[in-house]
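Methods: example folding runs. The two proteins below were folded one after another, and each record is reproduced exactly as written to the output file, sequence line first and structure-token line second.
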Amino acid sequence: MQHNLEDLASRTLARDAAQPAIEFEKRWISWGDMRRVADRVATLIEASGAGPSSPVAFVPHSRPSAVAALLGLIAHGRTVQMIYAFQSSAGIARDIGRVDPALVVAHAEDFTPEVLAALRASGAAAIALTEMAAAPVPGFEAVTRPPETGVASQPEIQILTSGTTGPPKRFALGYNTIATYSAGANTLSASFQDDQSHLPPALLYFPLGNISGIYGILPTLLRGQRVVLLERFTVAAWHDHLLRYRPERGGLPPAGVQMVLDANLPRQDLACLRYIGTGAAPVDPTAHRAFEDRYGVKLLLSYGATEFGGPVAAMTAELHAAWGEQKFGSVGRAFAGARLRIVDPQAGTTLPPGKEGLLEVISPKMGPDWIRTSDIAVIDEDAFLFHRGRADGAIMRGGFKMLPETIEHALLLHPAISAAGVVGLPDKRLGQVPAAAIQLKQGAEPPTEAALESHLRGHVYATHIPVAWRFVPELPRTVSLKIDRLALRQLFET
């Protein structure tokens, strides 16, 4: 018997109250603790006067109370409008104004004067999460806007895209889509009969408000596996998880590959691992090779996007065993039902294997139509996908087009450089010119600009040489550890 997502969430919250669910900051939270928070949020929503069809704006940090609240919202069939928690108060207030919700669930520290003003303007009620507790925000216990009418639509989780198919936009994932393609409703229904407490707890570090976080936390908890939850990824916490639980398979955010190399963790500490999965952004091939050489653990790359409903291609363990080094750097082949093709950016015609162009995708989760991306890619004669960079980030210097990733990869070949970020700056004569921010390895002496230029000239065309340089303690990154291009550009504007 297949169960829908609401039923799966309800059954998950009804697990043995004494059974551990989530480890957070070295303390285990039980399913009884989780259920109390979920029930409390449901009671406060009902008391607020928010109708059954009213969406709930949710500002989640990656904490157990937020996970409990999300499971409760799903169990009650609520549409959830995700708002990123890792932004300024002004940004949270702006996003609340844009979605105009009847009710907001957020953490207590997020209810700043700016956010409260946005709530007052929308007539919304508000619920504050604290450590495994929930309470109404004083003065915002009840909805003050006119009640919503009409029939409730199918529930969904609305999240922001990362820009794979253009500027970031709000995107809806229906409960049915999540249950079928992410949670695997049939498999999960059967897994309720099994005791999965013997499995090592999964380490989850992607933000709860984006698709990677949702697809990480929901299937894991719904099938009864324990979780170690990180509010933010750190090498120290990742390392600690390996030492305490010794999993056979693990995961790393793409930027984490170089971070682990820089930390110089002992090879034996990673000896339990056979494979490490990574995705959400490209992995620098130099760091990829260095990681596998040092630790003897294979990195399995994947490719996906919010607009596709998640991953559509991956280098699986089986593919790696069959093809190995022949396909180094590939993000694998398309999943069953998904289709990939490369098209000419101008003509829109399909290109043959081995030709570089824009990637288009058909994802069975989203429908039968081709989805145009902003990603430059190649599909080889064996149907393996290689991601090259983002067309919308390309720098046009006079008549020369260059990808920031090309310059970044070349910079990472320098022995002193840990990370590099490149952006285009406006130029009156040439239109745009590249600028580079450099993060050094611990203890490394900063190379001179002349030395950096000399290094680059051995790897890229002269047109690719940056005209401005910044040395930074740490590159600005998003909560998913992708380079924050906007923040990076602002480094050169001050």
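Second run, written to the same file directly after the first:
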Amino acid sequence: MSVWHHVRAVVLLPFTVTVVVPGIVLWRTGVEVSAWPLAVAGAALISLGLALLAWTLALFARIGRGTLSPWDPTTRLVVAGPYRHVRNPMISGVLAVLLGESSVFASLPLLLWFAAVLAVNAVYFPLVEEPGLRRRFGAEYDRYRANVPRWIPRFRPWN
């Protein structure tokens, strides 16, 4: 899988959701940095989210041999790193970035964008993503799904 495939997937998906749309929202509604405690908490969430995104993207490339996009999906099930604790750490990273941005800018419209992304993914994963993973990976995915929660991380990693 070429670097271009990964760059295209990141630009079209998480970059658009976490940078382009929030940038447009802030441009339309005005930018105002919140009080320092909220801004620091938001910056910490953004940093955590970006680190989680980078980690999961690297795992998709190295272990999954694919990208996060539906048009270049992984060819192997990724059950390493944060995927041993929760089935959707990439979306958790995106949501952390969005929540952090809404905190840094004390922006209700960004908080609403966070809620919309959460709602769309809460519907998309069980209706589209998970059935597709089941078709592609069969019993291996069923065993993983039975042991690793979708959203709330398990404390001890699954082996």
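Comment on the second run: The chain has one domain: 3-147.
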